[in-house]
Amino acid sequence: MDNPLMDVEGARARLEAWKARAEQRAAETQAAALGLQALRITAADDNRIVDVTIDHTGNLLDVKCSDRITRQAAEHTSRAVVEAYRNAKRKLAEAAAEVVRDTVGADSATGRALLAGYAAGEEERP
Asked: What SUPFAM superfamilies is this protein classified in (predicted)?
């Protein structure tokens, strides 16, 4: 058949291949979303005085302080909390990148869109 528009079987095969690719992308996107939502990150300040835990959105879930906190000024404790939070946000961005890389691919349009929020979050200051 000379006219590709009249090739019904070829058109059907192309449509099935397109459908399979779309279903694969949907499954990968769902896996990325579930993986990202499951992220919980705990990080400490550099002196290991404070540990913070954040969820996949960067919301603070928990703060734990070592006994050494009683031997320092409140100002130092405040800085330790902020430092631990920034460390957790950095680790969150790294973990999110790994999830995206393993599911939809960091170079895909979906991957770049998913990671854009985490990259923007790295620049925020609490």
From this structure: YbaB-like (SSF82607)
What secondary structure letter does DSSP report for 62? E
- The kind and range of the H/E element at 60 are strand 60-65
Range of the domain at 104: 4-123
> Beta-strand (E) ranges in 5-82?
40-44, 50-55, 60-65
Token look-up 């957790």 returns: 88
For 60-69, what is each residue's pLDDT tens digit?
A: 999 999 999 9
CATH number of the domain within which 64 lies: 3.30.1310.10
Angstrom distance (rounded) from CA 106 to CA 115: 8
pTM of the model: 0.81
